[in-house]
Fold this sequence. Notes:
The complex is a heterodimer.
Chain A: H1 2-17, H2 23-26, H3 55-66, H4 71-84, H5 87-91, H6 94-105, H7 121-135, H8 141-145, H9 148-161, H10 163-166, H11 171-189, H12 193-197, H13 200-206, E1 214-218, H14 228-232, H15 253-257, E2 265-270, E3 274-277, E4 280-283, H16 287-297
Antiparallel strand pairs in A: 1-2, 2-3, 3-4
Helix pairs in contact in A: 3-4, 3-7, 6-11, 9-11
Chain B: H1 10-40, H2 50-59, H3 73-85
Amino acid sequence: MKFLKRKLIQLMFLIFQNPFIQNFLNGRPYAGPTKSFCTPGLHCYSCPAMAFSCPLGTIQYIIKYASIIPVYALGSLLAVASLFGSATCGYFCPFGFFQELLYKISPFKTVKKIHPVFRYTKWFILIVFVILMPALHLAQGFCAYICPSGTLTAGIPILLANPGYRASIGITFYWKFSLLIIIILYVMREERAFCRYICPLGLMLGLLNRISIFRIKLDKNKCHSCSVCESSCPMGLNLPEEIDSTDCIKCGQCIDACPSKFKAIQREINFGFASISKNGFEKKFNFKEIEKNNTKTQ
Amino acid sequence: MKKKGQLRDFKHEKLLLSLKMPLVIILLLIATFFIYRGVTKDIDGFGTHEIDLVKTNGTNVCQSCIGLADANLWENLKKLFKGEKK
């Protein structure tokens, strides 16, 4: 039931971002005023139904063609990240939703932990493809050579609707299409594999996970280290140690998996000096108690 | 020295907890400033703002995104290195 609740939220946001479905027929992107706003999810702005702009595409375009720091897109991401961290990956991102659905229906899924080395590929992709390649005026690296969302939601529908574009298909399209198929197959095997190893947007948002207001909290006193949460994590993180780490998408599946008699993991709105969770309002400056515990253990 | 089983030093805990909200507020202020600059700052002397570029880019069919920009990566690389040599 809780799983369905998050899926409904994801579906709602998918519809919210893609209200112009009729544009798939003519293969032209929506051109209204909402295109001035960046959404914190990986969804191509050239998708005919998309009402907003993709922050990654915007960042690359502005670096490449205007040769300035894309303060508007970065500001939008910074605002979202300081409030929610990468919770947008778990609730808002259409490509994340697509990956979860694929994994759900997959006949050959496996439960795998995140690879300890390849998890850092995201850094390489962010630095080389999103920043360096546009800055050197080579190409919009991530959009041109990697982004599977662009191929799936913009490339294929636009090419299907516009015969004129089909004549100019070249090696880049075949490369991107092959990559999309590989990513789809791998996502069916390993849950959210794209988010785990490739997505630079999730990395940028996740950098502020520890500071953001919306947090996932572990109560170490209640945790019995049963590792049930670990097997439920779609990102394959080493839980409970990595709760709310840079790679965490705050989807809350660990919360649902935690045995109800323990309830060691909870969502909370954390203001630093105080927090609000299911337990209600809690003051964090209870230092007398901490001091008392310290003297007890001594 | 901390003994085994002893909880974290609460002074550092207090410092971290008291710094969190100011830090978030500073980040939000920076974000607001960035967005404000993106909306108001003229970037080319012709009255174009960054937000206009965002909209223009978003409303066109992006050749890169749909995989049609065979971006001549190698030629661009050659140009880049030739330019550097000059």
